[in-house]
Amino acid sequence: MDHRPSLDPAVAAIRRAVRAALATVEGPVLVGLSGGADSLALAAAVAFEAPKVGLPASAAVIDHALQPGSHRVAERAAEAAESLGLPARIIRVDVGTEGGPEAAARAARRVALLDAARDAGAEAVLLAHTLDDQAETVLIGLARGSGAASLGGMAPDRTEDGIRILRPLLDVRRAATRAACLAQGLPPWSDPHNLDRRFLRVRVRQDVLPVLEAELGPGVAEALARTADQLREDAEAFADMIDETIEDIVEHAEAGIAVSVPALAANPPALRHRIIRHVVASEFGESLSRAQTLEVARLATDWHGQGPIDLPGCRAHRAGARIVFAAR
């Protein structure tokens, strides 16, 4: 009798998740690889699954140059990818300062990965965010008072600048990626930034989630991830509703855009506020806070002659039966 060694459960779970994601892809894929356990486990699964469905796959290692020896870390990650059968390239990026170190690094990485995908002719970039990352994202959004769209967390599949961004591991716990690396003899890199308490996400990971698990019982991370799924569904539904109605209630105005006051006032607050934010974001590329959104909404629902409202990138004022958003 043929006794084959059983496949490690963590490896099997990650391969299943990757297999499901690859089933939605028709062209080449690119793995975003840092060398950490999450992305290394993802790369190993892609290297195993992609050839089975005839998909070319490669990896991109982003060197942020934020730590001493970062080039050696990038080289080891690229070597690991090559050993798995994934051609890899190292891309060094310049990280700015806007929005803080985490946001700046994320922005630089995003641009580099999208450029690398285009260079490789890839249809999709696969990222290794886990269920734990999703739970942390929701908690951070709650602490900041973010809206439902933000609390929806990271989408498993979205398109950005013509490239699909896939996150196959959003239902996989971080512990599983470490176990998968161990089972496959893959030595992951431990990023010291993951222990640096200057970063909010590290404090949420080390302090907040463990306390919630201890006080409320196990399953908090899974519950937060389910909440993200539900809120993302709601946000997508609202987005569809806005797309259906926006053309009927907006018109071009001098140096901007105008929205019908009666139509805006007739909508329920949740949709009214989303329309206002959508108009400003699409026309001027800016995001409004809730306080700013409410102030604009009062031009339609509580009009008593108030003057123009200064907003990021534009100014809103009421002109008859229209609210006009004009560039400042």
From TrEMBL:
Subcellular location: Cytoplasm
GO CC, one annotated term: cytoplasm
GO biological process: tRNA modification
Alphabetically ordered keywords of this record: ATP-binding, Coiled coil, Cytoplasm, Ligase, Nucleotide-binding, tRNA processing
Reactions catalysed according to its record: cytidine(34) in tRNA(Ile2) + L-lysine + ATP = lysidine(34) in tRNA(Ile2) + AMP + diphosphate + H(+)
Enzyme Commission identifier(s): 6.3.4.19
GO molecular function ontology, one term from the record: tRNA(Ile)-lysidine synthase activity
Gene3D superfamilies associated with the record: 1.20.59.20, HUPs
A Pfam family annotated for this UniProt entry: ATP_bind_3
KW tRNA processing (keyword) present: yes
Binding site for ATP: S34, G35, G36, A37, D38, S39
Domain (tRNA(Ile)-lysidine synthase substrate-binding): residue spans on this chain: 260-319
Annotated tRNA(Ile)-lysidine/2-thiocytidine synthase N-terminal domain residues: 29-206
Coiled-coil parts of chain: 221-248
Domain of life assignment: Bacteria
NCBIfam families assigned: lysidine_TilS_N (TIGR02432)
Family per record: Belongs to the tRNA(Ile)-lysidine synthase family.
Function: Ligates lysine onto the cytidine present at position 34 of the AUA codon-specific tRNA(Ile) that contains the anticodon CAU, in an ATP-dependent manner. Cytidine is converted to lysidine, thus changing the amino acid specificity of the tRNA from methionine to isoleucine.
Domain comment as written in the entry: The N-terminal region contains the highly conserved SGGXDS motif, predicted to be a P-loop motif involved in ATP binding.
This protein's name: tRNA(Ile)-lysidine synthase
Organism whose genome encodes this protein: Microbacterium aurum
